[in-house]
């Protein structure tokens, strides 16, 4: 699949087909200067370098990219070097190659599963086409630090007093268990089973750790 036609429609596409380029000097805050230890030019990553490709690439194939160190950056060695990378757009990178803003206002335990759209940014060592920041739809999955083991131990030992429900944030049910002595033991056993199979989780919709 030739992605040249898609690339030409990208905002800011230039005739020399440069990628990972920023027109401002903001990148200098993240790049080596004279006051810092000077690294080799070949080990620098975005935003300290800009990479060009000399030929149209086919998605999924490996290509050599010619990379240049940006102005005002101090490094050892040649400021022009080659790197090999897969031909793809930044939004096509694998999930471990970019980081996404996590949201904690959704229910991770909902059925069917909940998804939300958030901003993702490609890691600095990844070379890709197009914008390095993009929108992606990901599954709601977050944690507030609630431990499954702690909840299970509380259910088995102090479940008759509602300690497990209080720990999970289910205050009303916790009060009910406290004044009913765990539903005379029945409620205690049921909650221990539900926590054991991960069916009963934190009240805020987060996941166990």
From TrEMBL:
Compartment list: Membrane
- InterPro entries, from UniProt? TM2, TM2D1-3-like
Q: How does it sit in the membrane?
A: Multi-pass membrane protein
Task: Provide the primary localization.
Answer: membrane
Q: GO CC terms for this protein? A: membrane
Similarity comment text for this entry: Belongs to the TM2 family.
Its protein name is TM2 domain-containing protein almondex
């Amino acid at each position: 699949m030739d992605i040249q036609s898609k690339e030409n429609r990208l905002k800011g596409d230039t005739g020399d087909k440069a990628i990972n380029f920023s027109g401002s000097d903001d990148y200098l805050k993240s790049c080596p200067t004279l006051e810092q230890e000077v690294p080799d030019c070949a080990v620098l990553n975005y935003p300290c370098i800009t990479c060009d490709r000399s030929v149209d690439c086919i998605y999924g194939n490996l290509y050599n990219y010619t990379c240049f160190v940006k102005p005002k950056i101090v490094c050892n060695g040649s400021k022009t070097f080659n790197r090999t990378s897969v031909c793809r757009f930044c939004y096509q990178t694998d999930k471990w190659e970019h980081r996404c803003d996590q949201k904690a206002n959704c229910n991770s335990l909902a059925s069917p599963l909940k998804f939300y759209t958030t901003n993702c940014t490609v890691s600095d060592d990844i070379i890709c086409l197009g914008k390095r920041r993009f929108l992606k739809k990901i599954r709601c999955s977050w944690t507030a630090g609630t431990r499954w083991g702690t909840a299970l131990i509380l259910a088995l030992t102090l479940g008759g007093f509602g300690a497990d429900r209080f720990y999970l944030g289910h205050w009303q049910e916790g009060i009910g268990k406290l004044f009913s002595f765990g539903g005379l033991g029945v409620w205690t056993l049921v909650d221990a089973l539900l926590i054991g199979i991960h069916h009963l989780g934190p009240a805020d919709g987060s996941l166990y750790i």
